[in-house]
Amino acid sequence: MANNMSSRQACHAARYVVARVLRGLFWCLKYTVILPLATMADRKS
Q1: Per the UniProt record, which residue ranges are transmembrane (predicted)?
Q2: Angstrom distance (rounded) from CA 45 to CA 25
Q3: Residue-wise pLDDT tens for the chain (45 aa)?
Q4: Partner of 12 at 20 to 30 A CA spacing, among 1, 19, 31, 43?
């Protein structure tokens, strides 16, 4: 029982960390890809 609870908490913590990392990577991609593309499109028009 105790082992099951600890493994469940570990899974929850791992999922939280993965979600945070993915969100950080998404923000980095957003700023490194979308902003330059937007500025390039703005300069062209």
Answers
A1: 21-41
A2: 30
A3: 567 789 999 999 999 999 999 999 999 999 998 888 888 888 887
A4: 31
